[in-house]
Amino acid sequence: MTFPKEIHDQCMADLPGDVVKRRKQAGQQLSYVEGWWVKDKALRIFGAGSFGKSVDKLECVAAHEEEKNGKMRWRVSYVATVTVSVHCEGKSVQTSFFKSTDVGAGHGIGSLGDAHESASKEAVTDAMKRAMTDLGRVFGLALYDKNKAHVDTTSTDAAQDPPDPAEIEVTAQIQRCANLKALEGYGKSIATMGLTGQALINVRAAFKLRATAMAATEDEMKAFDVDVEDAQTVDELIHLTSDPILDNFPGSRRDQVLEAIEGKRLELEGGNA
């Protein structure tokens, strides 16, 4: 899968140093990014509705009770397999899937139920974060380099606090626009929605990215219409129906194209009768 340049550049940007957390584990100092921040960053880059995850497998692999400081505690471990999916609209870009397996543990928790909840959530979050590293440095890949060459300790990230709910809603509305005309109409009202600062910058960036992708898709649709009209044989039409570009078309527009292909097929078969 090939991302548009503006998305590629954001994915391969250096990881802001202020989002990197540290903890001790097995006598070592480990660096990591929090799960909520990784998801938030993905939504800001790809847009609401264009990023998601599914849990393919979640299995408890260990659970036992032990005494610690005179109290009985539970130690529970889970293994999770998570698939992350990303979709970008535009030329030569299809849905891509990234899968990862990781282990989560709930240690020293008094309640068995709480231990299971903690361990299962940790396993899912860690597997999701590991899968996201396949998308680029900014999602945590930079931390796998021992020298941390692409962790920018001088930069900060605007999303250290959870995003503005208004920003999330406006970004979602941008993604819901069915065509370029509707998007342009909605874009004219963004300045009146009360967004300020980084939230306004993020929304305008999401609008620009969506407009670029939709313009590319509309150009593809026009070219596809010409291909259907110029088809000389039924075999050419069959090839067009399996063209992956069709997956980028909105549902109603895709139906129109398929109807046009069927009409052209009947026309060609009638002419050969």
Describe the structure.
There is one protein chain. By secondary structure, the protein is of the alpha+beta class. The chain has 2 domains: 5-152, Enolase-like, domain 1 (2-Layer Sandwich), CATH 3.30.390; 165-272, no CATH class. The protein has helices at 5-11, 35-46, 112-132, 165-176, 180-187, 197-230, 234-241, 251-272, and strands at 15-16, 21-25, 28-32, 51-68, 71-86, 96-109, 151-152. The protein has a 3-stranded antiparallel sheet with strand order 4-5-6. A two-stranded parallel sheet has the order 1-7. The protein has a two-stranded antiparallel ribbon with strand order 2-3. β4 (51-68) and β5 form a beta hairpin. The longest helix has 34 residues, at 197-230. The protein is elongated, with a radius of gyration of 24 Å.
Keywords:
273 residues; alpha+beta; Enolase-like, domain 1; three-stranded antiparallel sheet; two-stranded parallel ribbon
How widely separated are the two ends?
43 Å
> How would you sum up the global shape?
elongated
- Nearest-integer average pLDDT: 78
Strand content: 15-25%
- Secondary-structure-based class equals alpha+beta
CATH level 1 name of the largest domain: Alpha Beta
Q: How helix-rich are the residues, as a percent range?
A: 40-55%
